[in-house]
Specification:
binds iron/sulfur cluster, about 100 residues, 3 helices
C-alpha cells in the first residue's frame, strides 16, 4: 500500500509517500533513526502489518521540518541525498518536492 502524508498550500505540494508493502519484512527500520527530526514512527496498519508512518505532529509542516535536509536545490536534482530516502534500501520513501 502507498501511504501519503502531507498537504498542499499556496507554495506547493509537500507529501511523503511510503510504500508500506516493504515494511513488514524490514527488520531494523533504519528510516526511523536516520531522520534527524524524528519524523517517522512504526505503526500497525489496517492489515495488522508493521508499517512506517509519518507522525501526526509533522504532517502539516513537512516543508518546514525537512528544510534542514533540503538546502536550496533544483527540483530536478536527485532526492537520494535525503537521509530518509538513503536509509531505506527498498526505496520505499519518496518526497513530492
Ligand atoms: S526502512 Fe523502508 S522498508 Fe524499512 S520500515 Fe522504513 S520505510 Fe519501511
Ligand atoms: S528529509 Fe530529513 S527531516 Fe525530512 S523526513 Fe527525510 S530525513 Fe526526516
Amino acid at each position: 500500500m502507498i501511504a501519503n502524508y502531507g498537504y498542499t498550500d499556496g507554495s506547493g505540494e509537500y507529501y511523503i509517500s511510503i510504500n508500506t508493502s516493504f515494511c513488514a519484512e524490514c527488520q531494523t527500520h533504519p528510516c526511523i533513526s536516520a531522520c534527524p527530526q524524528g519524523v517517522f514512527e512504526m505503526i500497525t496498519d489496517d492489515y495488522d502489518e508493521p508499517a512506517c508512518s509519518v507522525k501526526d505532529s509533522f504532517r502539516k509542516k513537512l516543508n518546514y521540518t525537512c528544510s534542514t535536509c533540503k538546502p536550496a536545490r533544483k527540483s530536478s536534482e536527485s532526492p537520494l541525498f535525503l537521509p530518509c530516502v538513503q536509509a531505506c534500501v527498498n526505496r520505499a520513501i519518496k518526497h513530492t518536492w
